[in-house]
Amino acid sequence: MSSAPVSPLADPRSRHRALDRLEAEITELWGHLSAATARFLALVAEFDRTKAYERHGLVGTAQWLNWQCGMGPVAAREKVRVARAVETLPQISASFARGEISYSKVRAMTRVATPANEDVLLNIALHGTAAHVEKLVRKYAWTQRRDAARTAHGQQTSRYLSCLYDDSGMLVVQGRLPRDVGALVRTALDAASDHLRERETTLPTDENVSAETWQVAEHERTAATRRADALKLLAETFLANGTGDGAWSATAERYQVVVQSRDGGCRFPGCDRTRFTEGHHVRHWADGGETKLANLVTLCGFHHRLVHEGGFGIAVTDDGMLVFTRPDGARIPESGMRCFRGNNSQDPVEHASNARAVDDLESLNRAAGIAIDARTSRCRRLGERLDYSLAIEGLQWRDLKAGAQSAPL
User: Fold this and answer.
1) Element holding 74 (H helix, E strand)
2) 298 pairs with which residues across the strands?
3) With CB atoms 3.0 to 4.6 Å apart as the test, which of 57, 310, 336, 352 could cross-link to 67 if both were Cys?
4) Non-local CB neighbours of 88 within 8 Å, separated by 6+ positions
């Protein structure tokens, strides 16, 4: 798809025709690139969904993309986010796969898109520029934050908790809490209930309480009574331990030693963590390993646990090189440039096939049944002014309608 250079001295009509061909070639290739990016993100979503990164001892797909594809950490995380978001947006996904919209537009839309409002966003993306889409998304996100702030303020001002004794002398507790506070309280009660349930799995040692009596009493307990006991446990725990800032208890101060390590971060292949690392004995101290730099390597907490508990191994060669191995004994390469790439295949037939597929996007898209020409990826805007207020109202109406339809009766 190469074009001859356009001479500034050519006949004006010929020059315009040559420039038209140049523009058509650029827009057509851009459509093919967009369609290929859509397929790339579909593969990334599948890779992330199946947690394929775990077999390499990595914590996520973004880390694998950084290691294997040379992608920056921020860009890699954004690619994973967009890839998973597009899976839930069939209209945007289909248009993206056809090469009609660019990754820039898709990335912006997925920040606010839902299955209910994606048609509005897609219409703007097809008939507007990437700048239009970005501006609309910013404005709509602002309205969402504004409405959420109003809701939060209303919940905050209407919160209350009342405690009163009834005629029998029992304390009756009733209240309304903001959503985040309510979630915090509910989580604490659930955790305390689980603790009580685990503690009650053993029979009492009191000889005055028979096992049969205890089992009957336990059977009669309900989730509500357990929550009441959990609230008691929370109160007892706070009164016993206080807030931890010295106001209620005289807890001794804790000391922490921070050591600037030699390795500059976790040494596990593919890991990009540089803070909160831990020293690991390559040869365990129980086997005679010394606590000295030659026998220590810094690992993040995640990879430190993998080495101790996950079957991954570390060894040091005679020339001081670190060798990391997977649970199956296979060596993990220090750099992603030496493995897992189709164009690095050792099979010459497979290598040639992969190279042709990557180099010829047009053939690749045709094989996938995607027809792309110079008009496919072009903006369909005719110069009309975009009414952002009207577009935002359309997004809000669709979101409200979807929320009303999904609300329980």
Assistant:
1) helix 73-86
2) 279
3) 336
4) 115
Amino acid identity at 71 = M
| Rounded Cα–Cα distance for residues 345 and 355 (Å) | 10
Q: Is 387 exposed, middle or buried (0-12, 13-18, 19+ CB in 10 A)?
A: exposed
Contacts of 84 (CB under 8 A, 6+ apart): 45, 48, 49
Rounded CA gap, 246 and 93, in Å? 55
Q: Residue 294: helix, strand or coil by DSSP?
A: helix
Q: How far, in Å, CA of 61 to CA of 49, rounded? A: 9
Residues 221 and 212: their CA atoms lie apart, in Å, by 15
**2 contacts: CB under 8 Å, gap ≥ 6:** none
User: Which residues lie across from 279 on neighbouring strands?
Assistant: 298
Domain range annotation of the chain:
12-151+369-406, 160-241, 277-338
Strand partners, 300: 277
Q: Which residue has the tokens 């703007």?
A: 124
Cα–Cα distances (Å) from 279 to 270, 336, 380, 409, in that order, read 18, 24, 58, 56
- pLDDT tens by residue, 346-401: 444 444 444 444 457 777 787 778 878 877 877 777 667 778 888 888 888 888 88
**Alpha helices, DSSP H, located in 208-359:** 211-220, 223-241, 301-309, 348-359
Mind listing the pLDDT tens digit for each residue in 201-219? 554 444 544 555 545 455 5
Q: CA-to-CA distance for 266 and 279, rounded, in angstroms?
A: 10
Q: What is the pTM of this model?
A: 0.58
